[in-house]
Amino acid sequence: MGDYSKALEFHEKALKIDEKALPPNHPNLASSYNNIGAVYNDMGDYSKALEFYEKAHKIKEKALPPNHPSLANSYNNIGAVYNNMGDYSKALEFYEKAHKIYEKAMPPNHPDLAMSYWHFGSINAKMHKYSEALSFLEKALSIFKKSLPPSHPHIQSRGQVAWPGRPPGACQAAGQAGSSGVNQQLYIRIGVQIYNRIEDYIFLADTIHKLK
Fold first, then answer.
1. At what angle do helices 88-105 and 111-126 cross, to 10 degrees?
2. Is residue 68 in some structural domain?
3. What is the CATH number of the domain that holds 87?
4. CB crowding 108-129: b at 16 or more within 10 Å, else e
5. How do residues 102-134 score in pLDDT, each as one tens digit?
6. Number of domains in the chain
């Protein structure tokens, strides 16, 4: 576990320097607020995380054009906090704002778009909308396979998405369960409840895709 109090101490020192040296809407101030928000988010202090993420976002809204990718990142940060709080409809609202910017600012196979679809997939799964979740996860998988090299940690040499730390025989077990007619929703539910990394969700989608 990280030393959050130390991290906060240094980020707050940096913020004080920035506040004295920079105009109130300078992008570096937004970065300082964002860093503090990230620490509070990791600590589980979501109200404080939102406070600082929103301060960062207000500066970005004034300093950047409306379709700047940094604004999308800001929406994603706020969405992630609502996700952690269990307010999935609110999280989805901010993830959708981020996605609209990515669609305008990024090429169609950019990894940021894949991450955006992954956010939609994970949120829909948590809301028990499993068919929608699977659709978004497969979109994410498709983009990652086009945009990342085979040697990338997300993707193994055979095009199967990496699942670091998966138990031995997990692939075989998934295959046997699928051939036995286990509902696809089960895989999504397991992925949401047990695993918490992007590799796991994408591996899940890849496995289901192969079992169809």
1. 160
2. yes
3. 1.25.40.10
4. eebbbbbbbbbbbbbbbbbeeb
5. 999 999 999 899 889 989 988 888 888 877 887
6. 1
